[in-house]
Design a protein that fits this description.
The protein has about 100 residues and is mainly alpha-helical. It has five helices and two strands, in the order αααααββ.
C-alpha cells in the first residue's frame, strides 16, 4: 500500500500550487485560521474578565449563542469586535504604518 503526503493529496484533489483552485483553497484556509485565532482571543479575553458567554452577550445586546459563534471564529465583523472590546474595556488600536495608529474604541 502506497502512502501519500498531505502535499501530494492536495495536488491530486485540489490542484497543484499556482492553480486558481489551489490558490483559492490556500486563501480560504488562511482566512479560516485567522478567524479561529480571533475567536480564541475573544474567548481568552472573556475568561480573563471572568465573564460567562451569557454575561458578555447581555453587555453587548446579543444572545449567548452569538458569543459562542464569535468564539468559534464565525460571524466576526469589525462592528462586533468593536462592541466586544468596548464591553470588556480592551483598547482596540490598529497600527496603520507610516500614517499612524487608529483607535476603534
Amino acid at each position: 500500500m502506497k502512502t501519500y503526503t498531505l502535499d501530494e493529496m492536495k495536488d491530486e484533489f485540489i490542484g497543484k500550487i499556482g492553480t486558481p483552485e489551489r490558490d483559492k483553497f490556500e486563501q480560504d484556509l488562511k482566512e479560516e485560521l485567522q478567524a479561529y485565532h480571533i475567536g480564541e482571543a475573544i474567548k481568552q479575553a472573556r475568561l480573563a474578565k471572568n465573564l460567562t458567554q451569557e454575561q458578555l452577550g447581555e453587555k453587548i445586546g446579543v444572545q449567548k449563542s452569538q458569543i459562542s459563534r464569535l468564539e468559534k471564529g464565525k460571524s466576526i465583523t469589525l462592528s462586533s469586535l468593536m462592541r466586544l472590546f468596548s464591553a470588556m474595556e480592551i483598547p482596540l488600536t490598529l497600527d496603520m504604518g507610516g500614517i499612524g495608529k487608529i483607535s476603534l474604541c
